[in-house]
Amino acid sequence: MDTLTAEQAAAPDFRRALAELLPELRAFARFLAGGRAEADDLVQDALLRGLASQAQFVPGTSLRAWTFTILRNTYYEQHRRRRRETARIQQGAPVEEAAEGAALTQQEAHADLRDLGRALRTLSPTLREALVLVGAQGLSYEEAATVCQVPAGTMKARVSRARAALAATLDPVKGKASR
Question: Where is the RNA polymerase sigma factor 70 region 4 type domain (predicted)?
Answer without folding.
Answer: 114-166
